[in-house]
Amino acid sequence: MRDQIRISIISLLLFTLILGIVYPLAICVVGQTFFPNHSNGGEVKDSSERIVGSKFIGQNFSSAYYFHPRPSNAGANGYDGMASGGSNLGPTSKKLIELLQDRIEIFRLENNLSPSDRIPADAVTSSGSGLDPHISLQNAYLQSSRVALARHLPLTTVRDLIRKETSKRWLGVFGEKRVNVLLLNLKMDQLFPGSKGS
């Protein structure tokens, strides 16, 4: 009996040391050494070095001066990092169909689009997490006229910036070309600080 208690105590201490201290410390060192940005949550800072968000987590922009992200169902008002998740509404859900119709109408009005303009899915649907920081190139281009007009910039200038801020497909094959909304909006403010108006 005494041997079993001794073995149990030694095992507990050994596994606590390995799994509770050594392993987490090793992962932390590897992460901070080789992937510091990812390990620190992809912090994004503005020109004054103030943290304004994460490049991995979407956040809301509603001003005409900024590109708008995908809709979000994360939390009561959306974009809540503590309540990541989708709506769980299926494709035959009447509530979802009505919601999408409302979002399409709002997107058309905000961006002065005609009824014949095709609206990309990511402009009116949320991602599975509700926190996707990216939008498609088509979505960004459809918003570019509104942003250019609000900032009193040539449309070609805004679209050139979209192209420069475009992320390519992973390994040239996987995923789609996309734009990080937070990084694009920060770049707009950095390059054209006086274009926002008052």
Largest sheet: 3 strands, antiparallel
Number of alpha- plus pi-helical segments: 6
Number of domains: 2
Terminal-residue CA separation: 78 Å
Oligomer: single chain
Shape: elongated
Lateral strand order in the biggest sheet: 3-5-4
* Beta-strand fraction estimate: 5-15%
The H/E string reads HHEEHEHHEEH
Please tally the β strands and state the result. 5
- Percent helix among the residues? 40-55%
The low-confidence parts are none
Tags for this model:
3-stranded antiparallel sheet; 5 strands; 198 residues; 2 domains; two-stranded antiparallel ribbon; mainly alpha
Kindly summarize this structure in a few lines.
By secondary structure, the chain is mainly α.
Could you walk me through the main structural features you see in this protein, from its secondary elements to its overall organization?
This protein has 198 residues and is mainly alpha-helical. The protein has six helices and five strands. Strands 3-5-4 form a three-stranded antiparallel β-sheet. Strands 1-2 form a two-stranded antiparallel sheet. Strand 1 and strand 2 (51-54) form a beta hairpin. Helix 4 (137-151) packs across helix 5 (155-164).
